[in-house]
Amino acid sequence: DTAVSQTPKYLVTQMGNDKSIKCEQNLGHDTMYWYKQDSKKFLKIMFSYNNKELIINETVPNRFSPKSPDKAHLNLHINSLELGDSAVYFCASSQESGRPGGSGNTIYFGEGSWLTVV
Amino acid sequence: GENVEQHPSTLSVQEGDSAVIKCTYSDSASNYFPWYKQELGKRPQLIIDIRSNVGEKKDQRIAVTLNKTAKHFSLHITETQPEDSAVYFCAASPLQYGNKLVFGAGTILRVKS
């Protein structure tokens, strides 16, 4: 009964490959996110979706493409992987609607996906 | 945009002592300030949060204070225990971006027994 689950947990792949990370939440939340945590532990938001609609799109290379088939799922596809993409990618969700002016609600993180590009 | 600075980057305390982690933020419109704890190899988990209409909030050994005028907020852990050892992140949510949390760089807390 994991609240936010993401797969795979570990992924080792070669440069130039294309890979996907899947995420699902069973909390009934309407907003989902992708965060990247680099080797220095810095957590940075990449994308935010509210009810399948893209709300936040930070300065992320076009090689990263999120897809939300429904509000319980937010997948991350990465094309042409580079060494610098190696990081832990956290999916997360919250009840906050994501609209500007929102008051902020608890964000629940998934277990993380450790991506290593060799 | 919002910028959150967190200090110190590492903190070592003796078991039973108190630990204080401080954060400053730049956007005066931010109104939501959560603290997350991340154990090694695990996900960040919320431990306490505070909103801009409250100056202080306490939950057992953990307390958070907020000074909106000075744009800073702090995490206080009393009677520290070895299991408090982790990385702690503060965050701030700018009002105009809904729930876009901007995180501080994290503080590695080590509690020595």
Describe the structure.
The complex is a heterodimer of chains A (118) and B (113). By secondary structure, chain A is mainly beta. Chain A is built from no helices and eleven strands. Chain A has strands at residues 4-7, 10-13, 19-25, 31-37, 43-50, 53-57, 64-70, 73-78, 87-94, 108-109, 113-117. In chain A, strands 2, 4, 5, 6, 9, 10 and 11 form a seven-stranded mixed β-sheet that branches. A four-stranded antiparallel β-sheet of chain A has the order 1-3-8-7, with no helix packed on it. Chain A is globular, with a radius of gyration of 14 Å. Chain B is an all-beta fold and 113 residues long. Chain B is built from no helices and eleven strands. Chain B has strands spanning 4-7, 10-14, 19-25, 32-38, 45-51, 56-59, 62-67, 72-77, 86-92, 102-103, 107-112. In chain B, strands 2, 4, 5, 9, 10 and 11 form a six-stranded mixed β-sheet that branches. A five-stranded antiparallel β-sheet of chain B has the order 1-3-8-7-6, with no helix packed on it. Chain B is globular and about 40 Å long. Chains A and B meet through strand 5 and strand 10 of A and strand 4, strand 5 and strand 10 of B.
